[in-house]
Write a structure and sequence with these properties.
The chain is mostly helical. It is about 75% helix and about 0% strand.
């Protein structure tokens, strides 16, 4: 993975994570760094899921973005619940 790929993954993770936090109702007790990490993982998993169901993942795909945000909402919800329970 190149430096550009890493920077792109961080930016996409930030956007996906932020969208997930906006979509998920209530307050999530997770940091922005954890949100970015969840967003990056969700972007990777969402792309894999999109490919598995036959969505073209070359260039920009709105359907791929929706899948990534749904995965990120689930991820932020799980991480928020686990972190909230730990406190």
């Amino acid at each position: 993975m190149t430096v550009t790929g890493i920077i792109t993954a961080i930016i996409v993770g930030l956007i996906i994570g932020a969208l997930a936090r906006l979509v998920l109702p209530g307050k999530q007790n997770i940091s922005i760094v954890l949100t970015i990490i969840v967003g990056i993982v969700a972007a990777l998993i969402g792309t894999a899921l999109a490919r598995a169901v036959g969505v073209s993942t070359t260039g920009f795909s709105f359907l791929e973005l929706v899948i990534q945000v749904i995965v990120a909402v689930i991820g932020v919800g799980i991480v928020g619940a686990v972190r909230g329970r730990a406190r």
